[in-house]
Amino acid sequence: MVSLRKVQYKQWWYNLLGPNLAKDRPLLSYFIDDRYLILTHKSPLMLLKPVALTSSFVGAFIVGMYFLTFEQARFFFPDNPVPVTLQTFGILLMGSIYGLRLSFISISFYLILGISGVPIFQGHNGGIEYAMGVTGGYLIGFFLASLLNSFLSTRGFNRGLSIWSMLASNMVIYLPALIWLSIGDFSWPEEGKLYQAILPFLLGDFIKLIGASIVISFLWRLAGRSKD
């Protein structure tokens, strides 16, 4: 017989991930295990809400942070001076796998660490000065794209339709970047050449979008074989 405490923690975990509504459950919720409790009700840390940390949550959070540091892997296309990193690939994966709340926690913690000076931004950079530079709009776009993709993924744009939520999320990365660069006083891109902030990334982003969609479709097939 399943204990009431285990049921309560399982419900808390689903609530943290996002809506627990039949087919609209976050993908990650199909793969979590029943090893829950790290903190007991007697722990003084239980004064902190929500109810408790779990081994599943901590593991998922660490993986989420790993997704967000994919930018350290980079390559160049011929005649393209802009490096293609895997960070947007990681963001798309995280948004499609996690629910809205867990994506929010992971991306927020990543940005807080980077702005605080931890060198986890592109090129091992960090700090408020870097975040307020030319990459500021892209960082805002990463935050919004992760949340949008999570939201759409738990509203039916999952499985074979994940490519559409990823496409919309990718567009959301570009918009804040363009606004940021158009109102800021930066040395890049050159005046009248704002397209330089987007055009070099299109081919790489398209390839990453297709790749992430294939991975998510494969994971949904695995989820279909696991018990709900």
TrEMBL record:
Keywords: Membrane, Transmembrane, Transmembrane helix. Pfam families: BioY. InterPro entries: BioY. The keyword Cell membrane does not apply. GO terms for molecular function: biotin transmembrane transporter activity. The chain crosses the membrane at residues 51-70, 82-100, 107-124, 130-151, 163-183, 195-220. GO terms for cellular component: plasma membrane. The keyword Nucleotide-binding does not apply. PANTHER family: BIOTIN TRANSPORTER BIOY. This is Biotin transporter BioY. It comes from marine metagenome.
